[in-house]
Design a protein that fits this description.
Blueprint: H1 6-11, H2 27-36, H3 38-44, E1 52-54, E2 62-64, E3 74-78, E4 83-87, E5 91-96, E6 103-108, H4 113-121, E7 134-139, E8 144-149, E9 156-161, E10 166-167, E11 172-173, E12 187-191, E13 194-200, E14 208-213, E15 220-221, E16 233-240, E17 253-261, E18 272-280, E19 298-301, E20 305-306, E21 311-312, E22 315-322, E23 331-337, E24 345-352, H5 353-362, E25 366-371, E26 375-380, H6 396-400, H7 411-419, E27 436-439, E28 443-452, E29 458-466, E30 470-477, E31 480-488, E32 498-502, E33 507-511, E34 516-520, H8 530-535, E35 541-544, E36 549-552, H9 558-563, E37 587-592, E38 597-600, E39 608-614, E40 617-618, E41 626-629, E42 632-635, E43 644-654, E44 659-673, H10 685-704, H11 706-723, H12 725-732, H13 736-740, H14 762-795, H15 801-818, H16 820-841, H17 844-851, H18 853-856, H19 874-878, H20 888-896
Parallel strand pairs: 1-31, 37-44
Antiparallel strand pairs: 2-34, 3-4, 4-5, 5-6, 7-8, 8-9, 9-10, 9-11, 12-13, 13-14, 14-15, 16-17, 17-18, 18-19, 20-21, 22-23, 23-24, 24-27, 25-26, 28-29, 29-30, 30-31, 32-33, 33-34, 35-36, 38-42, 39-40, 39-43, 41-42, 43-44
Helix pairs in contact: 2-16, 3-16, 11-12, 11-14, 16-17
Bound molecules: 2-acetamido-2-deoxy-beta-D-glucopyranose (5 copies).
């Protein structure tokens, strides 16, 4: 194993055999997968581009925040009361669900002196940690909410009376219901008046727990053992009810989703694994074995990977359950990234609940096996499983055997489930692959809505929130994903912490550290033409030919419904043909000889290419002094032959329709207003005034943008100089008129303020324009010469160190600007070399834990109390660290966890 060469894996990718995730011995496989294929994934992997990008200022989103209050991360929708409840730091709000800018009620919940003092004494920050972060908001009944806050690292819960909007003031212990640490992962769900939580049970955050709080009983919880929960990051929990046809008397189940450190795979450092776990609602714990512990806790691995590239997304960030009428119709969606965040890929996988149920009810168990004294491995359990099946909920079959509750389960079954909570079989996604893979984003949140389109098909519209405050809206059409739009929801680039959907108000609610934002689920009216409306391929939107508007189908009347046009494959040919715009109606643009013309043309689709035609033939940048920019065409130094018709076309490729759609976005007639021949200094004012009238806004715009135009033209010509010398003469020779008027005195540096055209003699401006251009060329030429000389000297190492540093910086920035994909690979390679070093020097964990330190942010602290505390760190065993006391890794761990664990007395530290 130690002789395995990474270099082999990298160079000989074809022979790299990639073990399936279900194979238990996959340490190196995973390594190969992550390192060898990073480049391939980031360059060739499938990924989608959002068609439309909306900025915050493009949209009229409703926002809520109050000065001095932060961390609006807990949201609860209450359909009956038409309210959105928001839990923030030290405050709870009731907002109007229809308009979150309307705040109906507010209550503050602060931490008193004494707990605050305790908290600061333990080394926590008074301004950050020792405040009360509201993390639980759950409906108890019509009148009350159950609320919990971190309360200066002493979690407390209370009842909130909705009528008066006040706390009852008799706080209960919140341990096991709410996290101590406001930044620690956490999940909770209220089911029939019982609170289910996934959190940490202690101050250190090192004792994870999945618990149920049901007032008359004491907490029912998980066993404290790494085989049950190993440094989990909880993301979501919800109940799945059996529904009406529970013929076999099955129980309702609560599912938990989290990422934890794997025990079953060998890996350098910690390998994260996404999990789904479940408990039965009727579980009461065992009689002797597993007293006050779950008897039905089982967990399995969630798989979200690209099989053809063997790329594994192993961190789950959020889950949304799309409940059907029956549990078996239920589908859930998860957002995943890779543990190696720098790969920059996010994925969405969907799963059938039946698949999960199948794994839990029929899957093989895994068992811990001790190999070669110290090396603990997890392997498939092949022995006989006791009956009733360990971890199963109580059903009619068991009741027939006089087992009517978990208290009656035989010890053999209980002991087995205590030791074997993990199932071997993985939960595979629908279609065995992600529904969606996106590059350069980190998804943090997901909600999904089912929409019936006009074609009568039902589409799952996926809304994903990112760590940069952006929302993506995607739809799956015939197996291909299409990202309809990307919306900048939050003003700042900060993570979306919570995302809720209300079909009733057709709104999404996003919570972040700085506020709450409400956004409609669709922006149909933003699409102004039929082509645009259809090409958007938004299941919510359709074109109404009568009103000539793009409308939301959910809001349209049945009468309107019949005439609506929608085509989710983006076949814009179904649009009614519009009468062609006559060339006579094109906008007239008149400019002076040698000045520049700016012909604006905005395309709002990221999937479209812009195409400019002049006099009916295709324009290319190379053809003349044209610059096709993002928002228009720039013609600098307009010459007489530039006059004519200009058309801006958008060519959009609609893959599902298999067609290109071209449409005319703008048309211009460019004409020259020839200035009087020299010497014209006398007074061209009259004509210019006339020009300004005819040329309208564009000529003025062109003048105002003079300095930008110059810069662009200069840099463009400079590029030409380097590549094709013949054109140089052309570009360096100014038009005849300006040669005559060459007057260096009037040169203005490009960055100087260009006076307002009205306040200046137009001819003077004209002169200045051309002179500065010539000067700029000269300057550029010298600069290039100077640069060449410097580069040469630098290259020959004639110049001292600063030059070399500059060289390094230049090369470095060049790389990062053009090859973002390789950065991911580089980081991977760095890991690879670090891993190699581990092999060489036999100091595994010291290096390993350094290289994986950034991953640590994803997780909370490790186990220190259990004898099996090395499980998450299998390699430390496999490299000969037999006795835990000799193992450096734990020293490193404790160091990195600083003061907050100062009072740890666990044996491992
Ligand atoms: C709370 O919000 C502040 C301000 O945005 C942020 O710096 C901090 O990290 C947040 N804390 C948590 C626990 O989310
Ligand atoms: C269940 O209990 C009933 C009455 O207590 C008894 O008659 C029956 O034999 C028991 N059945 C089994 C399978 O133990
Ligand atoms: C995604 O998150 C990782 C880890 O937090 C970070 O390194 C990376 O830059 C993020 N990528 C993007 C595209 O935001
Ligand atoms: C367009 O046609 C006109 C007249 O036929 C001609 O003068 C002009 O140079 C042409 N312009 C371009 C850009 O081809
Ligand atoms: C569609 O347009 C693009 C860009 O103009 C072009 O590369 C592609 O070949 C066109 N495809 C078809 C089928 O016309």
């Amino acid at each position: 194993m130690n002789q395995y060469s990474l270099a082999d894996a990298m160079t000989d990718k074809g022979n790299l055999t990639v073990p399936k995730l279900s194979e238990s011995n996959m340490g190196f496989g995973v390594l190969g997968v992550f390192l060898g294929l990073l480049l391939e994934v980031s360059t060739h992997g499938p990924h989608a581009v959002p068609r439309t990008s909306w900025k915050q200022q493009d949209l009229d989103l409703m926002e809520f925040s109050e000065p001095g209050i932060f961390n609006y991360s807990t949201l609860l929708l209450n359909e009956e009361r038409d309210a959105l409840y928001v839990g923030a730091r030290e405050a709870i709000f009731e907002l109007s669900k229809k308009n979150v800018t309307i705040r109906n009620k507010k209550v503050l919940w602060r931490v008193s002196e004494q707990p605050m003092a305790m908290c600061t004494l333990k080394g926590k920050s008074k301004e950050r940690d020792c405040l009360n972060y509201i993390r639980v908001l759950q409906v108890v009944d019509d009148e009350r909410l159950y609320v919990c806050g971190t309360h200066a690292f002493q979690p407390q819960c209370d009842y909130l009376n909705l009528g008066e909007f006040s706390l009852e003031g008799q706080p209960e212990d919140g341990r096991g219901k709410c996290s101590f640490d406001p930044s620690q992962s956490f999940t909770t769900v209220m089911v029939d008046g019982e609170l289910y939580s996934g959190t940490a049970y202690n101050f250190l955050g090192s004792e994870p727990i999945i618990s149920r709080y049901s007032p008359p009983h004491s907490l029912l919880r998980t066993e404290y053992s790494t085989s049950w929960l190993n440094e989990p990051s909880f993301v979501f929990a919800d109940v799945i009810r059996e529904g009406k046809n529970k013929a076999d008397g099955e129980d309702d189940k609560i599912y938990y989703f989290f990422t934890e450190v794997s025990v079953e795979y060998e890996f350098f450092g910690k390998l994260l694994i996404p999990r789904v776990a479940r408990v039965c609602k009727g579980d009461l714990g065992g009689q002797r074995t597993l007293q006050k512990k779950w008897t039905s806790f089982l967990k399995a691995k969630l798989v979200c990977s690209m099989p053809e590239l063997s790329f594994v997304f192993n961190v789950v960030h959020d889950v949304f359950i799309l409940k059907g009428s029956d549990w078996s119709d239920t589908v859930f969606y998860g957002v995943f990234t890779s543990q190696w965040g720098n790969v920059g890929l996010s994925a969405v996988c969907a799963y059938h609940m039946t698949t999960v149920e199948e794994v839990f009810s029929k899957g093989k168990y895994m068992q811990k096996a001790t190999v070669e004294q110290s090396h603990t491995k997890w392997v498939r359990y092949n022995g006989i499983t006791p009956s009733p099946r360990p971890g199963a909920c109580i059903n009619n079959l068991m009741r027939q055997q006089n087992i009517s509750s978990s208290l009656h389960l035989p010890d053999k079954t209980l002991q087995f489930v205590k030791d074997h909570p993990l199932l071997e079989d993985p939960v595979l996604p629908i279609g065995n692959r992600p529904r969606l893979i996106t590059k350069d984003v980190n998804y943090t949140q997901i909600v999904v809505e089912r929409v019936q389109a006009l074609d009568k098909n039902i589409y799952d519209v996926i809304f994903t929130g990112t760590d940069k405050g952006v929302l993506h809206k995607s739809v799956l059409f015939e197996g291909e994903v299409h990202i309809v739009e990307e919306i900048q929801l939050l003003r700042n680039s900060e993570p979306i912490k919570n995302l809720l959907l209300s079909p009733e108000t057709q709104s999404l609610y996003a919570g972040s550290d700085s506020g709450v934002v409400q956004s409609p689920t669709a922006f149909c009216s933003k699409y102004s033409s039929c082509d645009d409306c259809i090409l958007a391929r938004d299941p919510y939107c359709a074109w109404d030919p009568k009103d000539a508007a793009c409308v939301n189908i959910l809001n349209s009347s049945s009468q309107q419904f019949r005439r609506l046009i929608q085509s989710l494959n983006g076949d814009a040919d179904r649009c009614p043909s519009v009468s062609a715009v006559s060339q006579k109606d094109y906008q007239r643009v008149t400019v002076r000889l040698g000045s520049s013309a700016d012909l604006p043309c905005l395309i709002n689709s990221n999937l479209a290419h812009v195409m400019w035609k002049s006099n009916g033939s295709l324009l290319t940048e190379a053809s003349r002094f044209h610059f096709i920019a993002e928002n228009g065409l720039l013609i600098y130094s307009v010459a007489p032959e530039d006059q004519g018709y200009y058309e801006c076309w958008s060519v959009e490729w609609a893959p599902a329709a298999g067609k290109n759609f071209s449409r005319l976005l703008a048309g211009y007639i460019l004409s020259l207003d020839l200035p009087p021949r020299p010497p014209p200094q006398a007074s061209p004012v009259a004509t210019t005034l006339g020009n300004q009238e005819t040329s309208g806004t564009h000529a003025v715009e062109g003048n105002l943008k003079t300095d930008r135009v110059l810069l662009t033209s200069a840099s463009f010509t400079a590029a030409v100089v380097l590549t094709s010398p013949p054109q140089t003469d052309l570009s360096l020779t100014p038009p005849p008129s300006s040669t005559i008027k060459f007057q260096p005195k009037q040169y203005l540096p490009p960055n100087s303020v260009v006076p307002h055209p009205d306040s200046q003699d137009p001819s003077a401006e004209y002169l200045q324009h051309n002179n500065s251009m010539a000067l700029l060329f000269l300057f550029l030429l010298f600069f290039l010469l100077f640069l060449a000389a410097m580069v040469y000297n630098c290259h020959m190492q004639y110049l001292p160190a600063p030059c070399l540093r500059l060289r390094a910086a230049l090369l470095g920035s060049h790389k990062s600007a053009h090859q973002p994909e390789y950065r991911a690979c580089e980081a991977g390679l760095m890991e690879a070399s670090a891993m190699d070093k581990i092999n060489m020097t036999e100091q595994p964990m010291q290096n390993g834990s350094q290289t994986t330190q950034n991953l640590r942010a994803l997780r909370d602290t490790g186990y220190e109390t259990e004898p099996e505390c090395g499980n998450g760190q299998v390699p430390s065993h496999s490299f000969g660290g037999d006795s835990p006391s000799q193992e450096k890794p734990f020293d490193v761990d404790c160091d990195s966890q600083s003061i907050q664990f100062a009072d740890a007395d666990e044996p491992c530290c």
